[in-house]
Amino acid sequence: MKILSSIQEMKTWRREHGGTIGFVPTMGALHQGHGSLIEAAKKHSDKTVVSIFVNPTQFTNQDDLKNYPRTETEDIRLMLKWGVDAAFLPVAHEIYSGGYKFTITESSESKILCGAHRPGHFDGVLTVVAKLFNIVEPDHAYFGEKDFQQLKLISGMVQALNIPVDVVACPTVREADGLAMSSRNVRLTSLERELAAQLPQVLKKSAGTDVARAELSRLGFKVDYVEDFWGRRLAAVHLGKVRLIDNVEI
Q: What positions carry a catalytic annotation?
């Protein structure tokens, strides 16, 4: 596996490798959910690239950015195990070498759900994903359905801006008790972790969003939202210092 630390190194590697490129953009702290995206990329592409970049522009809470888990050594070990061809590990001052003056903003679906509770979050997401697409030049890019609003917005951006990338949606990977895998799960206390498994169960069994919201509050979650969109029931909740998102089909 080639480790690429600069934009120029990434571009040079891309020029030197023909065939199709499958790309998995991540913020690190890799887990089996990321592994499933990499597995999908390997099946349908000649080479697989994984980026690790904790993007500062998508954090509306600076404490969340400061405390976001960073496990680069373990991440590299996992990428080697999973057969990744190239790891792109850029730094913020190069990705945003001109500052954060030019952004990509979506005017409707980015303003609801997580966007309503985290103003500017999706501007940061869309801007950095567009930058990464321009640097890596992948044929296919793989995203999990757990971040369903993000997936919808990235797919919409690619279509609207005629970016030549096929965005591939991959099913949410869950722990044995049903909790969606997330890099933030490691920050839950043992009691919070046990309670967190109730989130997808409540979303599935509740007759409506009001019922689900009330039940989650009763269990001890601080609820940002529970809403039905795009044939999904989506939710964002807090347990202690950790914000969790999930969605289920309805």
A: 34
